[in-house]
Structures are given as structure tokens and as C-alpha cells.
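hey so u asked for the seq, here:
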Amino acid sequence: MDFGRGMWLSCNKSAQPGVILRKRPAISTHSPETEAREQGAAFMPRFDSAGLVTAVVLDSVSNRLLMVAHMDAEAIAQTRATGLAHFHSRSRGRLWMKGESSGHVLKVIEIRVDCDQDALELRVEPAGPACHTLAPSCFYRRLTADGALERIQD
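ran it, C-alpha cells below
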């Protein structure tokens, strides 16, 4: 049995197969703002002390992890307005559109928001390699048992 199915079964025990039991929601001890952020329909990003949220970028077709970056309010606004991924570059200290110099832009297909709105998942259509090293993904190496990095051949 795979891990996900095992977890589903352990969390959804019922007398009838295929019937999912749902517990009544507990009375919340969260603030109204937290409740709105976690359960409501309003987009309320929870920025960190630097004004950023983490953005995980996946290829919308293959679901491959392409990169991880950060977005501030301006980057989110520009991404939504243009349909192209914009980020806050911590090294440059400014707004940056992915591909602005290389042409390897990321067309945003969908933006997903995590439960407490402090991270975003961008599903994109890449126009070329996502990594500045020209690798298809920024995650092109793995850590081996002896602590060395090994290039992944995809």
C-alpha cells in the first residue's frame, strides 16, 4: 500500500468503503483575521517581516518543480496584471520579471495559495530553461549519501 493511501485510510475509517467521515469543526480559537485568511475567499497574503511570501514555481504540464523565489505585493500585482511571473529579487533588491534579460519568461497559468496564505504556488508555462544556469529546473543536483552534489540527468 502506498503512503498516501495508507494515510487516507487511517484518517477516514468508516463502516462502509468509500464513505468519508467528517468531524464537526472545532470551535476556533483563531482571530477573525486568521479565520478569514484560512477559511475565507479573500486573497490576504501574509508577508514576512521583509514583506515577502515564498513562491514555488511548477511546470503546469509536467508538475516539475522549476524554482523557488519570493514575491512582494508589487511582484504579485505585476504577475496578475501581465500574466508573466514577477518576483522580488533579494540579491538585486528590486522587482524582477523572470526572463527579462534571457527571454525565458514564465507564463502564469494558475496561482494557488497555501492554507495560511504565506506561500504561493505558481503553475507556469516556461519559455525555455527556468534556471539562470540554463538547466530546465533550478533543482538539477541531488545530495548523495557521502555529502557530495551529483548532477541529475533528466
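The domain at 43-151 is CATH 3.10.20.810 (Ubiquitin-like (UB roll)). Strands lie at 53-59, 65-71, 86-89, 94-97, 106-113, 119-126, 141-143, 149-151.
lmk if thats what u needed
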